[in-house]
Amino acid sequence: MKSPNPAGRPPGSTAQSKLVQRMLENADGILDVIIEKALAGDSNSASLILSRVTPSLKAVARPVEFDFDPEAPVSRQVEMVIAAIADGSVPADIGRQVIDAISNLGSMRMQEDLEARIAVLEAASGARA
Fold first, then answer.
1. Residue 111 pLDDT more than 90?
2. CB atoms within 10 A of CB 126
């Protein structure tokens, strides 16, 4: 069956597109009113303007210092972080992040070790053949 409207709906004919067009036509006036209200002390208007022109602040963790040996085995490193959490040197949420990082590094080291062992085995089996 052929479409009864092969050209489709004309652009700009939906209620939403008409509303957007009206808003664009009146944007300068709307902005002027909001700025006037903000300057007059309306905190909602000021908040709206500031939220659009200033970037939102992101939380930044404070640096922490504690005894840590990066050459120690992974389990010992985690014990050091737990001890730092327990004595209050490191906040628990930061400690969790450090432990996760240690765990990820341990996984990477294990994978590298396995790859090296496989390479040695493959080299040894190739030398015999």
1. yes
2. 8
